[in-house]
Design a protein that fits this description.
Length: 146
Amino acid sequence: MAVVTGIRTRILVRAIPALALLALANCIFAIYIGLEAYEEDGAVWFDDPNRSWFTGYCLRYVTVTELGDGDQASRIIWNASAATSQCLADFPFRYGVLETRHDAERFTPPEELQLGKRYEIEVELSNGAGSGNFTIAKDGTILNEW
């Protein structure tokens, strides 16, 4: 019995550092992306300008905030969270459009984006997070702010 216990102890002692290293590796490989807004076919789209054809992101949570200026407070104008482990959308994704079911308790329906307003988008991905700021100019062009 003492031999079996000794073997179990040695296995456990060797497994703990390996598990700790694996947990640390998951933290190290989390990504952070800068999002860029652009207009296509009359809609606002978001993408990572550095994304390659072989890179895929799973969108799990999105918030778009209209940024206040001066006395005007910032306010959330679209918010959605995945109801399951499924992706809300793949990249690129369109403002206000989700590909799968969202969590109804954590949902703010999308409001219309306004000319001359500044916005911030924040996302959570299955393997990281991202954000970006953009303005829709008076002439309708989208200006990304870095």
